[in-house]
Each structure stands twice: as C-alpha cells, then as structure tokens.
Design goal:
Strand content: 35-45%
Number of strands: 16
Shape: globular
Distance between the termini: 41 Å
Radius of gyration: 19 Å
Order of helices and strands: HEHHEEEEEEEEEEEEEEE
Helix content: 10-25%
Largest sheet: 16 strands, antiparallel
Structural class: mainly beta
Length: 284
C-alpha cells in the first residue's frame, strides 16, 4: 500500500516559491538587476516543484502497489487542480503516472498555460518502508517556456521529506535565455504530523541551489543553517522566520531575512541586505 508519510506538499513547496522571491515591492537600488533576475528564475522553479508534489500525491493512485488501483482524487478535483484539458493514466506494472496536458497550450488553475507531460515514477524502499517518486517532464512547456528537470522526492518519515533537483533548465521562448540549476531542499516537519488539519503543521526548511540564470550570471542560494526557514500551516503564503543568502559571479551578495523583527509573525515584512545596506521590504 501507499507509504508516503508526507501530505500534499503544495503548502510547503509553493511557499518555497518565495525562496528569493521576485514578489517584493522594492526600489531599484535595493537589489542588483542580476539578483532580481535570479529571484524570478528561482521562483519559477519552485512553482513547478509544487506542481510535481501535487502530481505525486493528489493525481496518482490511492495505492500505487495495487495492480488495479483507484485514483486518490476524483476527476473533477484533478481537473480543478491541473486544468480542464489535462488527462491522467497510470501504468500499474511500471508504477508510472502520466499527466498529459496535450500538444497545445492548456490553461491551468494557476493561470499558466501548459503543454506536454509530467511523468511520476513511484519508488519504494522496502527495507525502510518509505516511499518516494522521481518526477520528470516530457516535451513540457509553461507559457511557451520549455522546462526540463528530474525531481527526486524522498520520504524521511514523520512528515519530513527531501527534494533533489538535477538536470534542470527553463529555456525561454523567443531566445529569452536559459536558466539551468541543481538544488536540494529538506523539509523537516516539527509539529502537526498525523493530525487531520494542515493548520498546525510546522516545517523547518534547509538546503541550497546553484545555477546560471537566464542572463548567464552564475549564482548560489543557501538557507542559513543557523536560521532556517520556518513554514507554518496557518501562514500558507509566507515564511515566519529564517534567512537565506544569494551570491552571484559578478560579486554581488543579497541576504533575505523573513523575520527582521524577530516576532515570528505571519506578515509580509522582510528585509534585504545588499552591500552592507539593509532595507525593509513588503512581500507581495
């Protein structure tokens, strides 16, 4: 039977779209253009990580070890999440779920147009009784930008999980450049595991990413191990604590702090430090 111990990860991973978010109201002198470009590129990656988790946990079979499994959610809920033109099939022998958006653009619930396929290959560690999945894209485009990546999800038990991203790229339409990267994130659940509600969930997020943004500027993004990001279920859009640093090959460094006041409030207030200068910002 299915042995995932983590819930649908949209809450945790979509929030990780704020890892170096472009969704900040800030003046031009608050961050270098290279940092803003990297922020936008990173955000797109994390949105697709969230889609991958929903594909794995919501769109797939209720019991991926069964030879004749039923899907975990009905077709109406599936289409509400992935778009009215998306279809799904499951190969029980290979344990592979395919979500097909078709060969023409499909308007999805998040307002983005997708075409191509998401494939989820379910994996199981029999000795540890823990499950995971390898999620890939096939001829997959979002708003006409081609996405490639292998995202490997590993259940760490007690609601915790890791995500390894390799071979990832976003090739922008109209010669808009290519963003390529690797990443590793660990979501450690510290509260709320096993309860019926998401509101009491608390995750500590650590990890890093490295790559080259669409302007051909190299970067690294690292969550501060001494001040990891904290995601609460009752605050689905924002981190309530934590900081991370992004450095690029042009010698620029930006530190984003989600809790400059130290109050752990669920609010839009954060701070950005660039070249020793700190400014308070309001997240969108």
């Amino acid at each position: 039977m299915r042995t995932f111990s983590f819930r649908s990860l949209t809450l945790a991973c979509l929030a990780s779209g704020l890892l170096l978010t472009a969704g900040c109201n800030r003046k031009a002198d608050d961050a270098a253009p290279d940092d803003i470009t990297t922020a936008e590129d990173r955000s797109e990656d994390n949105i697709e990580t969230a889609i991958s988790t929903d594909a794995m946990n919501l769109a797939g079979p209720a019991d991926f070890s069964s030879t004749t499994p039923a899907f975990a959610i009905p077709d109406a809920d599936f289409r509400a999440r992935f778009g009215s033109c998306a279809t799904r099939t499951y190969d029980a022998q290979a344990r592979v779920l395919t979500i097909d958006f078709g060969t023409t653009n499909c308007l999805c619930a998040d307002g983005r147009y997708r075409r191509g396929q998401i494939r989820v290959a379910f994996t199981t560690d029999v000795l540890k009784r823990r499950a995971g999945a390898v999620v890939t894209r096939v001829n997959y485009f979002v708003n006409d930008n081609q996405h490639t990546a292998t995202r490997t999800f590993t259940d760490l038990g007690q609601g915790s999980f890791s995500v390894d991203v390799t071979g990832a790229s976003i090739i922008r339409a109209n010669n808009g450049g290519t963003h390529s990267w690797t990443a590793n994130w660990t979501f450690t659940q510290t509260a709320g595991y096993g309860t019926a509600t998401f509101a009491d969930d608390v995750y500590t997020v650590t990890g890093s990413a490295a790559g080259t943004n669409r302007k051909a500027v190299g970067y690294t993004t690292t969550i501060d191990a001494n001040n990891p990001l904290i995601k609460r279920g009752d605050c689905p859009k924002y981190f309530v604590q934590g900081s991370m640093t992004s450095s690029n090959t042009n010698g620029k460094t930006m530190v984003l702090n989600y809790d400059p006041s130290g109050t752990h409030d669920c609010d839009r207030i954060a701070s950005v430090t660039v070249n020793g200068r700190t400014r308070t910002i309001t997240l969108r």
